[in-house]
Design a protein that fits this description.
With 170 residues, this protein is α+β, with helices and mostly antiparallel strands. It has 5 helices and 9 strands, in the order E-H-E-E-E-H-E-H-E-E-H-E-E-H. The longest helix is centred in the middle third of the chain and has 9 residues. The protein starts with a strand and ends with a helix.
Length: 170
C-alpha cells in the first residue's frame, strides 16, 4: 500500500517525471506493478504487487471491486448528478461508464465509487456533469482503506487479511 502523492506518475520509469516505484528502495522495485493507475495529480491509495493475477482481478470490472474516491469539484454535486451516475454516464467521446455512485458531501465535495478504471474516468464523469475536478484522492479499494498514518510517499506491506479486504468474496 502506497499513499501516492500528487506529482508522481504511476509508471515503472519515466524520463521526465518521478514515478511511484522511485519512492521504494531499489530492492523492492523489481517485479512490482501498480494495481491500476492514478493520474499524476491524483493522490491516495495505490496498491503495488508482484502478482499479475491479483492485479488483474482487482482492476477487472467483472470482479465488482469498488474503488472509493474523494473529490473536490468546481460546482456543487446535486441529485441530478447522483441519478446520472446511477444510470451510467456516456462520456463525450462515446465511452460508456458502468453505473457508479456519487455521494454529495456538502458544498463542492463528494465521494465517487466506481468498479472500473477507464482513462481519467472519475474526472471525465464529473466534468461531463459540469463539475470539473479540482482535487482527487483515492481512499479505498474494496474494503481496504488507505492507512491514515501513512504520509504522502510512504508505503507499508500488506498481509493476507488486507488482501482479503481488497478481494472480498471474489
Amino acid at each position: 500500500m502506497l499513499n501516492k502523492p500528487a506529482g508522481v506518475i504511476t509508471a515503472s520509469r519515466d524520463e521526465r517525471h518521478g514515478t511511484v516505484l522511485e519512492l521504494f528502495p531499489e530492492s523492492l522495485r523489481r517485479g512490482r506493478i501498480a494495481v491500476g493507475r492514478l493520474d499524476k495529480d491524483t493522490s491516495g491509495l495505490l496498491l503495488l504487487t508482484n502478482d499479475g493475477d491479483f492485479a488483474h482481478r482487482v482492476i477487472s470490472p467483472k470482479s465488482g471491486i469498488e474503488k472509493l474516491y474523494y473529490a473536490e469539484v468546481d460546482g456543487t454535486p446535486d441529485e441530478a448528478d447522483v441519478k446520472a451516475f446511477e444510470d451510467g454516464i456516456v462520456l463525450g467521446d462515446g465511452t460508456k461508464c458502468l453505473p457508479a455512485k456519487l455521494v454529495p458531501l456538502g458544498g463542492n465535495r463528494c465521494h465517487v465509487i466506481v468498479m472500473e478504471g477507464k482513462y481519467h474516468q472519475v474526472k471525465r464523469m464529473l466534468a461531463s456533469r459540469g463539475k470539473p475536478v479540482v482535487k482527487l484522492r483515492r481512499l479505498a479499494v474494496g474494503a481496504l482503506e488507505l492507512d491514515p498514518t501513512l504520509a504522502p510517499g510512504e508505503a507499508k506491506e500488506l498481509g493476507g487479511g488486507d488482501i482479503a479486504k481488497v478481494l472480498g468474496s471474489f
